[in-house]
Amino acid sequence: MMIDVRKAAIIGCGFVGASIAFSLMQRGLYSELVLIDSDREKAAGEAMDLSHGLPYAASMQIYAGTYDDTADCSMVILAAGASQKPGETRLDLIGRNTAILRRILPELTGRGFQGILLVVSNPVDVLTYAAWRLSGLPAGQVFGSGTVLDTARLKYLLGQELGVDSRNVHAAILGEHGDSELAVWSSANISSIDLDRFCQLRGRPDRAGLDRIYREVRDSAYEIIRRKGATYYGIAMAVARIAECIVRDERAMLPVSVLLQGQYGLDGLCLSIPAIVGRNGVESVLEIPLDPGERQALLDSAARLKAVIRDAGL
Fold this sequence. Notes:
Distance between the termini: 30 Å
Order of helices and strands: EHEHEEHEHEHEEEEEHHHHEEEH
Low-confidence stretches: none
Structural class: alpha/beta
Radius of gyration: 19 Å
Oligomer: single chain
Strand content: 15-25%
Number of helices: 10
């Protein structure tokens, strides 16, 4: 079956899935968007609510569908699963969400789906690896949202601290989308000015201040969940950015969760690493320079996730 490059599906219509649908609609990236949920009425209600705003957005079709509608999709976004509760880590969700993944993937592959599978459900790195193993799709077509949101949080907080537009901040969070993630300070810059030098020019922050910002990024989800019960707007915008790179074939560099096959001396897991993302999904995984401390932090993050993958029987 021919793939329709302007057709996508979202599986899971909870807070995250519905917010992703809204964000994609606002960007006008697709002409057809299918919403799938185990609660068909929920998916239908979300489709109705979104469709009523279409007179003020780009022309497209949004509807509640079934797995039969995914066969010709260029991308399926997996947002189904249990959400993180106060006091839980993302890794606490493994058993519940792996079981859901095992039910969903045969529904996709059984329809001959050959598009891009973007995993958003947590723990995203573990589920991305499981999705690649279970789906049989090429590695470049199965990847996760990774630390695209964490990186946006870092850019925002650095911009606030330095009094500069966050779009001028070039820095990244890598590793696990979770407690062992790391900030890559060694290559961070503000519109080509080395971060340390820019901090000196602005008189802030010092190294302790940067560490504080990193911790705030790492713990952002916990804080948001404590305050409002769930996070969904930020990840929706991050997913829309990834989709934009694919639909427009931007070949942008994003820290998505990708299968490692020897990069950084690692394999047998998915981890958030800078990758070139375009029409065909992940086109290449990049080995960027890391200082010794950052490299060790990345290896430690990988070891943590490999243990989880092993214990989960993946």
